[in-house]
C-alpha cells in the first residue's frame, strides 16, 4: 500500500523528513508544498537571514543520510567556542569539546533540496513552490493551496505533516478542532539582523562572539564562509534604546557608546540598513499535542517554536525527524501508531525545551558572571569527577542527545534561579 504524504513547509525539518521517508521504500509518495520561491533559483538577502549552529542533535540527524552532512560542512564554519567581549575591552572564552557548524538556514535548505532531487524523481517526490496552505479539511483528508497567481488547487493526503514554521497554517487549522490547545506568545526580546559584507577588521575565527550591556541588549556575531560577518542584536520589547534611533548618526553613536568593537566593524552603509531594517519578533509555541487523529502531525517550529537563546530551534526540529523515524521502525511503518506516539514521546521534550530556552540564560549582570563561573567550574570538575559533577548545561544541550526533559530535571535549580531573576529584571524595565 502506498501512503500519500503532503508536507507543508520546505524548511530543513520538512525536507529532512522527506529524505527519511523516501529511503524507507516505495510505500511513501511525497508532495512538498512551500509558500516561498525555490531558494535555489531566487537570490536571498543575507542581511535578513538568521544564522544557525548545528550541534550534536542536528548533526546526528543529518548524518543518517549518506553524503548530506558532508555537503552541509562544505558550506559551514566550525566553531569551537564562544568569546564574550566585556565593556573594558577584555574577553572571556568558553571552549567546546565538540565543534558547532554554523551556516545560514537557507543554505541548509538548499543542501537538503539538492540531495533530494538528485536521489528521487517525480514518480515518488514532487515539490511545489509558491503554494500556500489556505484550508484543511480533516474529514476529507484534503488540503487547499493557493499559488501566487491566485489559482487555488486541492491535494488529497493519507498523512498531512505541518513543518511550516512558527506561523504554521496547518497548526492554525488544528486549533479549530476539539482537544487541541496551543499557546502562542511573543518572546520578551526582539531583534534586528546585522550583516557586514566586507569587514575591515576580522573577528577571531572559530568563535561565536557576544557583547551585552546592562539594559538587556545583546549582540551575537559569527564569521561566515564567504568572509562576511552576520548575526543579530537582541533587545527588550519595552524601554530599549534601539527603537528610539531615528538617524544613521544616532545608530553609529549608539554603537560607539555601547559596542565600540562592533562600531569599528560596521560601515555607514550597514548603519543605514540597520536603521531601515524592520524589528523582528520571536514567537514561542506550546501545544498540548502534536497530532490529530491518525492523519496529521506537526514538527519543528510548527509544534514547538522557542527562543533562539540556546540555538536549539533547528537542532530540535531535525531531531523530531529522527524520533518519528524511530517510531516507524518500532511500529513497523504503522503511521497511525507512530503519529500518536510522536505526541506522547516528543511533546514533553518540547515543553522542556521552551522552559530551558526562556530561562537558562541570565539577563542580569550578577547572574551572568555566575553563569560564566559555573561554565568553567563544570568543565573542570566534571572532567576530574564525572560521577559527582554534571557537565555544563550548554555542553549537554549541544554535545549530546539527552532528552530535553531529562536536562531540565538535572538543571532545575539553575533554571528556576534564572527564571526568578529574569522575571524581576524585565518587570523593572
UniProtKB/TrEMBL annotation:
One of its GO terms (biological process) is kynurenine metabolic process. Its cofactor is FAD. Pfam families: FAD_binding_3. SUPFAM superfamilies: FAD/NAD(P)-binding domain. Residues 6-323 form the FAD-binding domain. InterPro entries: FAD-bd (IPR002938), FAD/NAD-bd_sf (IPR036188). GO terms for molecular function: FAD binding; kynurenine 3-monooxygenase activity. Keywords: FAD, Flavoprotein, Monooxygenase, NADP, Oxidoreductase. This is Kynurenine 3-monooxygenase. It comes from Tolypothrix tenuis PCC 7101. The lineage of its organism: Bacteria, Bacillati, Cyanobacteriota, Cyanophyceae, Nostocales.
Amino acid at each position: 500500500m502506498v501512503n500519500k504524504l503532503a508536507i507543508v513547509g520546505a524548511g530543513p525539518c520538512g525536507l529532512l523528513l522527506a529524505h527519511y521517508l523516501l529511503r524507507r521504500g516505495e510505500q511513501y509518495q511525497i508532495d512538498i508544498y512551500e509558500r516561498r520561491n525555490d531558494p535555489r533559483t531566487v537570490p536571498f538577502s543575507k542581511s535578513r537571514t538568521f544564522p544557525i549552529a548545528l550541534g550534536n542533535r542536528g548533526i546526528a540527524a543529518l548524518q543518517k543520510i549518506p553524503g548530506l552532512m558532508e555537503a552541509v560542512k562544505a558550506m559551514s564554519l566550525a566553531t569551537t567556542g564562544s568569546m564574550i567581549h566585556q565593556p573594558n575591552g577584555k574577553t572571556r572564552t568558553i571552549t567546546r569539546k565538540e565543534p558547532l557548524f554554523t551556516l545560514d538556514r537557507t543554505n541548509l535548505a538548499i543542501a537538503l533540496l539538492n540531495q533530494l532531487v538528485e536521489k528521487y524523481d517525480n514518480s515518488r517526490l514532487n515539490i511545489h513552490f509558491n503554494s500556500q496552505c489556505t484550508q484543511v479539511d480533516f474529514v476529507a483528508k484534503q488540503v487547499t493551496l493557493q499559488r501566487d497567481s491566485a489559482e487555488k488547487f486541492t491535494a488529497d493526503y493519507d498523512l498531512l505533516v505541518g513543518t511550516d514554521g512558527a506561523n504554521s497554517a496547518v497548526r492554525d487549522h488544528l486549533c479549530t478542532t476539539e482537544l487541541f490547545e496551543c499557546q502562542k506568545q511573543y518572546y520578551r526580546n526582539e531583534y534586528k539582523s546585522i550583516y557586514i559584507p566586507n569587514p575591515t577588521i576580522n573577528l577571531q575565527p572559530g568563535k561565536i562572539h557576544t557583547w551585552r550591556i546592562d539594559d538587556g541588549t545583546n549582540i551575537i556575531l559569527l564569521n561566515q564562509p564567504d568572509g562576511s560577518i552576520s548575526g543579530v542584536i537582541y533587545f527588550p520589547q519595552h524601554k530599549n534604546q534601539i527603537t528610539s534611533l531615528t538617524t544613521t548618526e544616532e545608530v553609529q553613536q549608539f554603537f560607539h557608546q555601547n559596542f565600540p568593537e562592533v562600531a569599528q566593524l560596521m560601515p555607514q552603509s550597514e548603519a543605514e540598513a540597520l536603521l531601515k531594517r524592520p524589528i523582528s519578533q520571536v514567537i514561542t509555541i506550546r501545544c498540548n499535542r502534536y497530532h490529530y487523529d491518525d492523519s496529521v502531525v506537526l514538527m519543528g517550529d510548527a509544534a514547538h517554536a522557542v527562543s533562539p537563546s540556546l540555538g536549539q530551534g533547528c537542532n530540535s526540529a531535525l531531531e523530531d525527524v529522527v524520533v518519528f523515524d524511530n517510531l516507524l521502525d518500532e511500529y513497523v511503518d504503522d503511521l497511525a501508531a507512530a503519529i500518536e506516539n510522536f505526541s506522547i514521546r516528543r511533546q514533553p521534550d518540547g515543553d522542556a525545551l521552551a522552559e530551558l530556552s526562556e530561562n537558562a540564560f541570565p539577563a542580569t549582570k550578577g547572574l551572568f558572571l555566575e553563569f560564566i563561573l559555573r561554565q568553567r567550574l563544570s568543565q573542570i570538575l566534571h572532567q576530574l569527577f564525572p560521577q559527582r559533577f554534571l557537565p555544563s548545561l550548554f555542553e549537554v544541550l549541544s554535545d549530546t542527545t539527552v532528552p530535553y526533559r531529562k536536562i531540565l530535571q538535572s538543571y532545575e535549580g539553575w533554571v528556576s534561579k534564572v527564571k526568578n531573576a529574569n522575571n524581576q529584571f524585565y518587570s523593572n524595565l
